[in-house]
């Protein structure tokens, strides 16, 4: 039996056992092992360790250790090295970096002893990954750049992609995003060439992490969701846990707390089943952040301390930094500034000599935020300047341009490959159709010849009539074809006319979009810049009250700017059709309560009473994000245009049609004239005004509200008189299925 045949048998047995061993137990495995030679046993067990590493890590560790035992007994050095690397991989994924390094160093030593390039390259790569996780990026890059030529020499594409992916993470943490994106895209290209779903899912997670750190949540979520889809198809439990946690992380940043909790809980269940302490700790942190957003302080603190305990036991200093900062922020929000600073400075001590500019930046920002809450202007400025310097160096214009160029080039290449693939399929289909046509023509010609011969032989006098009939049918057929061509041309012409009208409308909308940016964006930016300049130039001549005033004014300007950008983003997405429509059952009372809590600080500052009279059984059937945007926008406007001491009431009502229900938002604000009422929903006019506390609007919010309400099949109405307040009413489809109690 040749080596190739033996290898194929081992591989097939390994695949069979990996699929059936759980059901058949250890007896099946032992039976297979007894049929193999010592070397084949080691190779078989090492392969099982690799297969189980993404499904049942503890089982992978068991197979790796068993492979090592058999390899040592058989004095099979190559098998020993692979076993050391497989055992080290388990400890690496679990966050036990020192234990992992010991295993990888053992494998490297064997590789040098037997002069086996593949083992040397693999071990060097894994040691580089260890140093990356330990935060020693210089050593990590040294090992990884050293191993790349070895992988290329052996044309080991999988190893090249893994190495490039790790280098991408290192450059990202060092604050070089353009290099990070370049290596991440190179890794993804190779993995797509190999058509390895699990490796592609890893790259998609990496790209998601990159875009998440760049705050491009749309692209981040797209990559995370695609990674989850692939991991579920392949049954990759570690990949599923990673993707679920990452998706929840995006929803958390969007303040979609309940949705993020669903993903975190599923991710946590899988991580605990896999006994992955490191991934479990990561999800603990995110769940703590979620419960803090839901104002459940007890649960938030419990998850933070649980995550800190895991990394403390693993002695992972750098991975403790985000947790220490988060606990510090938690205590600062609860006004326990002494404890907050204690945790922040612990984080600073662990990251100060680190090569991670991202962790340093986040720690400086956390300290600056805490000092700002303490109204300690000097300390705030000290750490805010350190944060700004790092942030500016990471996100400079040249870097952003380079990122955009890389991203565009990659997308163009992807599209080109897709087009070439489509063209190839079309050409194949054309060739197939030509072949079929040729066969049909040959059959038709043969049949026609036979028929004509018979007719000529038996009924010669009918030949002329038949030929004339064929000619007439041909003319009729051609006339029909001409009519179809004319109809197609007419249809094409109509479409061109429609496209021209649509293009004209798009250009008008684009002109209005740039007009809004030029007019409305310039003012808040100028105000924000002025306040920041005043704050950055502050010296002893400024009183604490003046600094507080400037700080509060800066925050107000930033909020106005943020509201403007959010509305511009929503408007742009709606025009491009990138907002997905996903109707679902919504308990109105919960949605209104969430909105009221979001404006609680603003209503308190203006002494405004806000009352909700929503029927607890009122259940709508609409897109949750769109309806949430509409309610938040109208309530925010009510707060904005209601003077101090005013009242706002939110109530539900039954629509005239039993299939609809409605929501009214009534305020005692300044009101709107009849002329201005006509302008509220017209983007071309771009009507906006100033609130009772000088709050600024964009003119886009109500335009989007109308669009979102109508997209859900409802209507929006407004009634108002100057000095007598305003009443907004919306109707939305009613859910016909009664929800359960929970």
From TrEMBL:
Its EC number is 2.7.13.3. Gene3D superfamilies: 1.10.287.130, Histidine kinase-like ATPase, C-terminal domain, Tetratricopeptide repeat domain. It holds the Pfam family HisKA. The chain crosses the membrane at residues 439-459. TPR repeats lie at residues 81-114, 121-154, 201-234, 241-274, 281-314. Residues 1-23 form the signal peptide. It comes from the Bacteria. Residues 516-736 form the Histidine kinase domain. This is histidine kinase. It comes from Xanthocytophaga flava.
């Amino acid at each position: 039996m040749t080596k190739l045949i033996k290898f194929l048998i081992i591989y097939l047995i390994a695949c069979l056992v990996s699929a059936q061993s759980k059901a058949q137990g250890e007896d099946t495995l032992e039976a297979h092992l007894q049929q193999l030679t010592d070397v084949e046993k080691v190779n078989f067990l090492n392969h099982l360790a690799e297969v189980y590493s993404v499904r049942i890590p503890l089982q992978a560790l068991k197979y790796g250790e068993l492979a090592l035992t058999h390899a040592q007994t058989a004095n099979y050095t190559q098998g020993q090295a692979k076993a050391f690397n497989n055992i080290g991989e388990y400890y690496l994924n679990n966050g036990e970096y020192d234990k992992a390094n010991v295993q990888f160093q053992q494998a490297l030593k064997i590789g040098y002893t037997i002069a086996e390039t593949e083992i040397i390259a693999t071990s060097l790569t894994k040691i580089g990954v260890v140093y990356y996780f330990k935060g020693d990026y210089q050593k990590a890059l040294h090992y990884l750049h050293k191993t790349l030529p070895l992988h290329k020499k052996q044309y080991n594409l999988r190893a090249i992609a893994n190495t490039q992916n790790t280098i991408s993470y290192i450059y990202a943490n060092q604050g070089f995003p353009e290099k990070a994106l370049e290596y991440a895209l190179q890794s993804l290209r190779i993995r797509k060439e190999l058509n390895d779903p699990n490796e592609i899912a890893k790259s998609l997670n990496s790209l998601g992490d990159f875009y998440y750190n760049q705050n491009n949540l749309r692209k981040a979520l797209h990559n995370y969701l695609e990674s989850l889809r692939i991991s579920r198809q392949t049954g990759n439990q570690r990949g599923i846990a990673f993707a679920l946690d990452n998706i929840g992380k995006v929803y958390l940043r969007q303040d979609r707390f309940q949705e993020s909790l669903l993903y975190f809980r599923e991710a946590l269940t899988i991580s605990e089943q896999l006994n992955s302490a490191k991934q479990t700790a990561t999800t603990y942190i995110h769940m703590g952040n979620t419960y803090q957003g839901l104002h459940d302080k007890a649960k938030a603190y419990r998850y933070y301390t649980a995550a800190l305990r895991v990394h403390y036991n693993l002695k992972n200093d750098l991975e403790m930094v985000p947790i220490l900062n988060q606990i510090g922020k938690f205590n600062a929000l609860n006004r326990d500034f002494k404890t907050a600073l204690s945790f922040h400075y612990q984080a600073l001590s662990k990251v100060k000599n680190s090569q991670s500019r991202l962790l340093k930046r986040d720690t400086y920002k956390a300290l600056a935020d805490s000092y700002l809450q303490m109204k300690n202007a000097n300390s705030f400025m000290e750490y805010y300047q350190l944060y700004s310097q790092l942030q500016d160096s990471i996100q400079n214009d040249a870097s952003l341009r380079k990122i955009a160029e890389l991203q565009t080039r990659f997308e163009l290449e992807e599209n080109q490959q897709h087009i070439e693939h489509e063209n190839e399929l079309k050409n194949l289909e054309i060739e197939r159709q030509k072949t079929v046509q040729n066969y049909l023509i040959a059959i038709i010609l043969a049949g026609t010849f036979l028929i004509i011969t018979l007719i000529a032989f038996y009924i010669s006098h009918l030949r002329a009539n038949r030929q004339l009939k064929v000619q007439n049918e041909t003319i009729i057929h051609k006339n029909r074809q001409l009519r179809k061509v004319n109809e197609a041309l007419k249809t094409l012409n109509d479409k061109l006319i429609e496209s021209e009208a649509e293009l004209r409308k798009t250009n008008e909308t684009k002109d209005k979009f740039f007009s809004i940016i030029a007019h409305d964006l310039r003012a808040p930016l100028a105000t924000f810049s002025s306040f920041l300049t005043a704050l950055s130039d502050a010296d002893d001549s400024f009183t604490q009250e003046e600094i507080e005033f400037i700080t509060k004014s800066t925050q107000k300007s930033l909020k106005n700017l943020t509201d403007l950008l959010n509305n511009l983003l929503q408007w742009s997405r709606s025009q491009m059709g990138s907002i997905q429509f996903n109707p679902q059952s919504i308990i109105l009372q919960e949605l209104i309560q969430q909105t009221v809590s979001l404006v609680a600080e603003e209503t308190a500052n203006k002494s405004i009473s806000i009352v909700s009279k929503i029927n607890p059984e009122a259940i709508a059937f609409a897109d949750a994000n769109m309806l949430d945007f509409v309610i938040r926008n109208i309530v925010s406007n009510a707060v904005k245009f209601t003077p101090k001491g005013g009242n706002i009431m939110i109530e539900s009502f039954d629509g005239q049609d039993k299939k609809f229900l409605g929501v009214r938002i009534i305020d005692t604000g300044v009101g709107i004239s009849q002329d201005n009422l006509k302008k509220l929903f017209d983007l071309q006019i771009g009507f906006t005004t100033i609130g009772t506390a000088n709050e600024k609007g964009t003119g886009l919010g109500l335009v989007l509200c109308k669009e979102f309400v109508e997209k859900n099949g409802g209507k929006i109405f407004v009634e108002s008189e100057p000095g007598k307040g305003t009443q907004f009413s919306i109707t939305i489809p009613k859910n016909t299925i009664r929800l359960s109690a929970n």
